[in-house]
Amino acid sequence: MDAPCFILVAPQMGENIGAAARVMANFGLTDLRLVAPRDGWPNPAAETMSAGALPGVVSVSVFERVEDAIADCGLVIATTARPRGMEKTVLGAADAVAQMRAKPVRTAVLFGAERSGLPNEAVALSDAILSFPVAPGFGSLNLAQAVALVAHAHAEADAKGPPPGFGVGAPATREELIGMMEHFEAELDRAGFFFPEEKRPPMVQNLRNAFTRAGWTAQEVSTFRGAIKALALGRGKARLKREG
C-alpha cells in the first residue's frame, strides 16, 4: 500500500504522459491515472515516448473527475510550486514519502497540467502539498520532471547502497597488499631505485604508506602486479636486445 498512484490532472501532451510513465517504470511504480487527458486515451505519442513502459509495465486508468480518480485513496498529496492561500501542510519530497509509508492506505500524488498546474479545486481535496526547492525566479517544472522527482524520492527511501553491479570489489587482504609491495620493491631494487642504501628504509616506508592509504581492492592488486611484471619483462627484453 505504500506504493503511490500518480494522477495527472488534465495532461495536455501525450509525450509528457509517456515520459511520466517511463520514469515511473524506472523506479518501480506502476499505477498511473489520468483525469480528462486533452487528447484522449490511448495516445500513440505517449506509447512512443514511454520507451516500452506503455502498455504493459505501467497500467493506465482514465477518469473524468479528480474525485473519481482518488476515490480509493486514503492520503492525497498535491504537487505545486505556488502558494494557494490554503491551510495545508507543505512537505518536501522526503517528508511526503515518509507520510506515504507511515499510513496503511493507498496514496495518490496529484500533478497538474503543463500550462497551468493543478486547479485549486484539486488542491482543496488534498491532505498536504508537496513542493520542491526550485529557484524562485524559475519554479515551473516539466510534468515528467516533477513525476521523476517524486518517483526517485520514493525509490531512494528503499535504497540500500549502490544499485547491483556498481559496488566496489572486495578489499585486498593485508597478505595480498604486502605481497604487491614486496614485488614492487624487488623490481625497484633491480632498477637501482634505492640509492644510497642508507635511505632505503625511509623510502620503503613512504611507498608503503602511500599504498596502504589507497584502499586497494583484490582486483586492483592483481592488476598492478601484472603491470609490475610487464615492466620487468620489458626491461629484460630491452637488455637482451642491447647485449645481442
Q: In a few lines, what is going on in this structure?
A:
The chain has 244 residues and is of the alpha/beta class.
Overall 3D geometry? elongated
The largest β sheet comes out as: 7 strands, parallel
* Count of alpha/pi helices: 9
CATH homologous superfamily of the largest domain? SPOUT methyltransferase, trefoil knot domain
CATH topology annotation of the largest domain: Alpha/beta knot
Helical percentage = 40-55%
* Biggest sheet, spatial arrangement of strands: 3-2-1-6-4-7-5
List keywords for this structure.
244 residues, Alpha/beta knot, seven-stranded parallel sheet, elongated
Task: Give the SSE map.
Elements: E1 5-9, H1 14-26, E2 31-35, H2 44-49, E3 59-63, H3 66-69, E4 75-79, E5 89-91, H4 93-102, E6 107-111, H5 120-124, E7 128-130, H6 143-156, H7 174-190, H8 200-213, H9 218-243
Parallel strand pairs: 1-2, 1-6, 2-3, 4-6, 4-7, 5-7
